[in-house]
Design a protein that fits this description.
Elements lengths: L8 E10 L12 H14 L4 E3 L15 E4 L11 E6 L3 E2 L4 H15 L11 E6 L8 H13 L1 H7 L13 H4 L1 H6 L3 H9 L4 H8 L7 E2 L11 E6 L5 H21 L12 H14 L10 H4 L5
Parallel strand pairs: 2-3
Antiparallel strand pairs: 1-4, 1-5, 1-6, 3-4, 6-8, 7-8
Helix pairs in contact: 1-2, 3-7, 3-9, 9-10
InterPro entries: Amidoligase_2
Organism: Lasiosphaeria ovina
Protein name: Amidoligase enzyme-domain-containing protein
Length: 302
Amino acid sequence: MAGPTPRYTLGVEIEVLVEPHKIRPPLHEKHALYYELLAKALRNRGLKAQHNDLTQREWRSSNYNEWYITKDGSLGNPDNLIPTEAVSPILDTAADWDQEIDVFWDAMRAVFHMPQRAGTCGSHVHVSRGRNARFTLAELKTIAYGIVVYEDRVMELLMAYRQDNAYCKPNSKNSFRLQRAGGNRVLIANMIRSAATPEALRDIMQNSRYVLWNFDNVAANKSGTIEFRGGRFLRGEVRTKRWMTFAVAFIHAMLRMNDLATNGLSAGSTAALYSEIKRAAQQLGMGEFLPKKFGVLNETLP
């Protein structure tokens, strides 16, 4: 008899450069106005939402129960577009998270034209065990080992422009300690096993937060999420759900495979790893959102 479906919570940060349907010049001075319009469009569709009015220190609800529309400084300040970051509330794989994403993009289309194909934009997905649950240290170590040993294969699953991006460097290229391991799986496994706390594991996995898999938030006083920073620029609901699913399913696959137990590498190719990720997505009830071929995911195939 099959056990209960595993459950995770997740959230997404969507960076876009967008042109409004109704332009109120000078556009570069009206960012907050359009953030307010998008927040209103979300509320009109039944979602909770707030916006940054850019007049004071940025604020958002600390329990992440609503959409937050704000500005991301990395997107610059173009004269003819609105640089926007939309941060989702905490969503649940056991609930209708995908319908919330559909509603978000419906609101976006009501206020803006389709987002630009902008290489400066990306997407970040935060994954945790649950609103009131955290990954155990043992789980974090298992995930961390998989992140490192499958790094080259995961890079092949990403869009080309995200593979060597300054804001989502591969963990092994950002961490001095991982670099010293030189790809030796035994050394990597022993180093990860040696971490006595989540904070110690974070310090093994990265020197800064600008890594593909960011462990900053696993610290005891933070949210408990692992952040995947390698998602493409998003222009609609299909690819939003695709990359959100990829992040959650990869983490679930690493826990299922548990290669840390044997210092192993059970998925011997990129295709084999993607099959494991798809299998994990199916177990989570999210399989419909991943394409059959990873060439469609990274868009090397039509």
